[in-house]
Amino acid sequence: MDKQQVIFKDLGIIEYKAAWDYQEELLQQNLAVKRLLRTEPVFIDELQAENNTEIVATKNYLLFCEHPSVYTLGKSGKKENVLMSDAELQQNDIAFFATNRGGDITFHGLQQLVGYPILDLENFYTDIGKYLRNLEEVIIQTIAEYGIIGHRSKGETGVWIEPDVPGRERKICAIGVRCSRWITMHGFALNVNTDLSFFNNIIPCGIVNKQVTSIEKELGRTINYDEVKEVLKLKFAGVFGIEMVE
Description:
Blueprint: E1 4-13, H1 16-39, H2 41-51, E2 60-66, E3 70-73, H3 86-91, E4 95-98, E5 105-108, E6 112-118, H4 128-144, E7 151-153, E8 156-161, E9 170-180, E10 183-191, E11 211-212, H5 215-219, H6 225-240, E12 242-245
Parallel strand pairs: 1-2, 1-12, 3-4, 9-11
Antiparallel strand pairs: 2-6, 3-5, 6-10, 7-8, 8-9, 9-10
Helix pairs in contact: 4-6
C-alpha cells in the first residue's frame, strides 16, 4: 500500500490569527472535496477517466511555525486561568484568542515549535484518541533524541516529564486539536528555547501546581531550533507512516 503523502510547510514566525485563518482555509478546502465526493462520486470518476485528470482527493498538511507572544484558550477553558487583565495584556504586547480547539489555556511564543497537522483521518484511522496518542508519541520520540524521557499523564493530554513524582511534574508540550468530518486542525506546541516566564501569567492548561519546562531548561543550554524541527519532522513521518513532501 502506498504511503499517505503529507505536504510540509514551514510558515516561520507568523501571527496566531493568520495561522489560524490559513488552517481554516485548508480545512474548508478538504471539507469541500468531501462534500463533492459524497454527492457526485460517479460523475467525478467519469470526468477523471475521460480527461485523465488528477484524482479528486483530500490533502494532508503539516504546518510548522512560531507565534509572537499570545495566550490561547480552548473550548473547555476558563478566561479566569489568565491571570492578567486585558489592559495588562495590551501593555505587555501579548495577544489573546479564544479558539475552537480542545483544551484550556496555553502560551505560544518565539522558539516554541508549533505544529498544525491538517490531516484527513479517514486516510489513516477514525479514532481521535489514537490520533492524540500518536501526536504525543511524536514528541516523546523527538525529545528522546536529546536524552529527555517524556511521558503521558493520565487524563491530561500532552507530554510530561516525571508526571508521577509529586512536586516534579512538568509539561514540555501542550496538545489541543479540533476535528471536523475527520479533518484535523490545531495541534501541538513544544517548548524548545521558549521564555517560560510567560507561563507565570496563566494557569497552564487549567492545571494548578504543576510546572512548565522546555528542552533548553531540561538540558541547561540553548538548543538548535532548526535541528529540533528536522528531528520532529522525521519522527512525525515515522509515527504516522507517511511520506513528507514539500
